[in-house]
Amino acid sequence: MTKKATEKEKEALEKYLIQFLNIEKQFPLLPGISNEDSMAGIMGLSGNELKKLRDMFRQNAKEAALELLKEDDITDWVDKLPFNQTDTIIAVGDSSTDDLQGWFSIFEHILNITVPEADFTFINAGISNNTTSEALRRFHRDVLCHEPDWIIIHLGLFDTIRPDFMPGRTLLPISETWENLATIEDSIKTVTENPPIWISPAPVISGLLDEMELFDFGIDEKDLSQVRQILLGKQGYIVDPLGKRMGSPPEAWYYLSDGINPSLSGHVNTVRELIKTLATTKEK
Questions:
Q1: What is the CATH number of the domain that holds 186?
Q2: pTM (2 decimals)?
Q3: Cα-to-chain-centroid distance, residue 32
Q4: How many domains does one find in the chain?
Q5: Res 82 pLDDT > 80
């Protein structure tokens, strides 16, 4: 007998989980992975319920893009973006990239709306909770094999988690993060002459994170700062190098209840910084 999600579980899915549960990305070779009814069943939903929820988040991203385009600066900056009309643009990252209403979805809508004659290809290669090591392991399959023109990297946050049972160390040592990002940087040069676009990890709100029952780890700002220092030494575009886009100190309005993942307003801040950086700064 198939177990259906309770109303409380459906509420949790709608308000927090479903936007990150893109299981088909994590297990692309499973025979039933393209069957949306099968995916819905895993979550205790019907196919129609899953589609409705996913469509809601995608619509949120489109509406956020339309709101951003009401800002004069954004419309001016969009005209100065360095893309050609047939470019393939890939984003690789963790849950903030994987998010159905995330920054990359908003960015895609902005480009498609403002350059309607273009034939862009957008590939979202974000997978929730990925570290730089996990992203590197799948980098050829999910990124390089597509021979993209532009690659946007938004990684590093989950390298810095400190599990509750061993708070004296981060999940990955900073030396491994450095080496992983250096390898990613070198591999990008094998498929495109365009520079990488690096987005720094935003800070977290520790008080909210501590209250989140789903997580059993902490994240320290000093560890995130070390990741940002690595990015400062990279070639290409560096978006929000100091991690200030969610406020300083970060404001809860820009986050979901976990204090880690951005709310729709937080994603808008990332897109604004991304567009500004590409339009107004010279690549390093």
A1: 3.40.50.1110
A2: 0.93
A3: 26
A4: 1
A5: yes
